[in-house]
Amino acid sequence: MDEPQSPAAPSSSSAPPSPEGENGGPARTALPSAPPLAKITDRFLAFLLDLLPFLAGYYGTLYCRIVLKHDPTLVTGGWKRIFLGWAAAYLLYQMLGNFFGATLGKRLLGLRVVRPDASRPGFARSVVRALGYAASMPVFNLGFIWALFQAESRAWHDLLARTIVIEVQAKTQGQAGRNALFAFASLAGFLALNWWFFIFSPTPADREAIRKAREGLKVLAAVEEAVKAERGAYADQLADLAKASGDVRQFKEAMEGIFDPDGFRLAADKDSFEIRARALDRRRSEVSLAGPLKGG
């Protein structure tokens, strides 16, 4: 009679099989991947979206004060106070955007400002990053251009605050391409606008120089009318106008202070005169006045 067999102890080979990976080995638990770094073109578009309202406010204020109110204090430094006011508002806006993770422009582009460990920057880093814009922007935006060559696309203000900008909303290849194209077109327009402004657009000092030149022509025209009343003909030589002014030295100093000496022209006969001159603005704008004046 066979003896009853005791149940065999479970061996290690009887343990539940572990799931296999693609090559037959044990499968690995997938770790969450870090969000991708923001593309420099998306960052530039967000920068423009954030900056344009403040630029519009600054130039709108200048327009109201110069054109509508004719405020003379802008020439003596008033425009600097306006600029600093709008610049301070912009930096405050950036600080708040950093603290809450993103400015409006970054949110529209699906970007977020974070620490390298993907946590929020916090108050101190938000302040440092905002103030860092003052270092990144002035010298031809060199601090932003730095991001083109930095491994993590970090601009100077990112490096100062130890932050990065990530992409939290994935974009299709078509969306990324359109954003890049629009960014390059915007950059070209931005550079052209800056070039036009600094080369061609008159500054408050330029406007004041032109105003002084026009006022100077009116004074010269009044002297011409006095010469006509005394001699019966207008003077066709600047030296005659200087003598008629009563103080040749003061006349010469005034002329040098408001006119370019190389651009002054005076033509006159018995019945009429014409004065052409160039103001002392950057473009040496031409101003002119012809007579006889009304009522002269």
Quick structural gist:
The chain is mostly helical and 296 residues long. 52% of the residues lie in helices and 8% in strands.
Record the SSE blueprint.
Blueprint: H1 40-68, H2 78-99, H3 104-108, E1 111-114, H4 122-136, H5 142-145, H6 156-161, E2 164-167, H7 173-199, H8 204-231, H9 238-245, H10 248-258, E3 265-268, E4 273-278, E5 286-291
Helix pairs in contact: 1-2, 1-7, 2-4, 9-10
Which structural class should the secondary elements be placed in? mainly alpha
Helix content range of the residues, please? 40-55%
Order of helices and strands: HHHEHHHEHHHHEEE
Low-pLDDT residue intervals, each spanning 5 or more residues: 1-19, 28-32
The count of helical stretches stands at 10
Strand order of the largest sheet: 3-4-5
Distance between the termini: 151 Å
